[in-house]
Amino acid sequence: MAERKARVERDTLETQISVEINLDGTGKSSFDTGVPFLEHMMDQIARHGLVDLTVNCKGDLHIDDHHTVEDIGITLGQAFKQAVGDKKGIRRYGHAYVPLDEALSRVVLDLSGRPGLSMDVPYTRASVGGFDVDLFEEFFHGFVNHSMVTLHIDNLKGKNTHHQIETVFKAFGRALRVAVEMDERMAGVTPSTKGAL
Ligand SMILES: [Mn+2]
To answer: From the CA of 46, how far away is ligand 1's center (Å)?
Structure first.
């Protein structure tokens, strides 16, 4: 099987970002973004998705975290799309439920070739550790628009905001892992009746 890796750099006046991803990794990660709570969440993607992930960003954090979070989502989406390649032989769909104490989230995704996000997370607080949690919707919008993934995120239960969003990221990692897995019964076949994704 061809290596499923990518490295993408994205420079704008607001952010300078590099993302490296290996879909067939072991969950190693390295982050230097200036936004520790986002790094804690991306660590869940790496660990639970079994992808190796390096993300470096110099962003305009003197304004706020918005551009950094959104643009990392975009760049991660570009890198993911490049790494996943022609999608031949993959499972295509993935889903996961993940609990953390009182919190429970479900993530369902389709490497459909069409961007789409439905995200319903009724946060119990607006921020965690100074981080505005509504920015995670910008992160996932950036991701789907550039990875061409259909993504449904639902936090089903939760009282603690940290737990709510952490279960989302763990479930996202788990669902990605399933979707990009090779299905030996589908070897060399594009998993679509259209013949293309
Ligand atoms: Mn945590």
So the answer is: 14
Dist. CA 131 → ligand 1 center (Å): 13
> Model confidence at 10, in pLDDT bands (50, 70, 90)?
very high
CA–centroid distance, residue 100 to ligand 1 (Å): 9
CA 58 – ligand 1 centroid, Å: 24
Other CB atoms within 10 A of residue 88 CB: 15
Q: How far is the C-alpha of 99 from the C-alpha of 193, rounded, in Å?
A: 34
Centre of ligand 1 from the C-alpha of residue 187, in Å? 38
User: Tokens 């993940």 correspond to what residue?
Assistant: 98
pTM above 0.90? yes
Q: Which of 2-6, 72-76, 103-107, 137-141 has the lowest mean pLDDT?
A: 2-6
Beta strands in the chain (DSSP E): 5-11, 15-22, 29-32, 52-59, 93-100, 103-110, 116-120, 127-128, 131-132, 150-157
Produce one character per residue of 15-41: b if its CB has 16 or more CB atoms within 10 Å, e if not: bebbbbbbbebebebebebebebbbbb
Distance 167 CA to ligand 1 centre (A): 9
Q: Is 42 helix (H, G, I), strand (E, B) or coil?
A: helix
For the chain, list the domains and their CATH numbers: 5-186 (3.30.230.40)
CA of 5 to the centre of ligand 1 (A): 27
